[in-house]
Amino acid sequence: MTDLLSLAYPWIKSIHIISVISWMAGIFYLPRLFVHHSEKVPLHGETHDLFCMMEMKLLKVIMNPAMISTWIFGLLLVLSPGVVDWSDVWPWIKAISVIGMTVFHMWLGKQRKNFISGRGVLEGRRYRIMNEVPTVLMILIVISVVVKF
């Protein structure tokens, strides 16, 4: 198994990076949709339905598959011989940050359901503030992987 992972390493890493880019694009964009949805659109009617459809497709068609493939190919990288030394600090920071990103992803899914039900929708300002969470996590992830402290 480890020989196969070593041979496939460049492909696994490439697909992991593509998955991360796709996931992050959605994770940055969905809260922005929520900002506009909460500030400019009543919670009923044609425009509301359009926003709900866009938010649902972004989450289910792009973000969910990208998150799942990020996790799968990330775990395959972790299992590849010589890639991760768990006695270092960086893999722990990355792991905790990726778990945090996943929790944020699930929070976004809950917020989407709030828009559908018309209850529990936050102010646009709150979505703007929450949109900084993935930025901080992304910075931690990139620095930990590149600097490897």
Can you walk through the features of this model?
The chain is mainly α and 149 residues long. It has one domain. It has helices at residues 2-40, 46-79, 90-117, 124-130, 132-147. Helix 1 (2-40) packs parallel to helix 3 (90-117) and helix 2 packs antiparallel against helix 3 (90-117). The longest helix is centred in the first third of the chain and has 39 residues, at 2-40.
Task: Provide a compact summary of the structure.
The protein has 149 residues and is mostly helical.
Question: Low-confidence parts lasting 5 or more residues at pLDDT below 50?
Answer: none
Biggest sheet statistics: none
Q: Kindly, what is the distance between the CA atoms of the first and last residues, rounded to a whole number of angstroms?
A: 29 Å
One letter per element, helices H and strands E, the order comes to HHHHH
Which structural class matches the secondary elements? mainly alpha
Number of discrete domains: 1
Shape: elongated
Strand content: under 5%
Helix content class:
over 70%
**In angstroms, what is the radius of gyration?**
18 Å
Mean pLDDT: 96
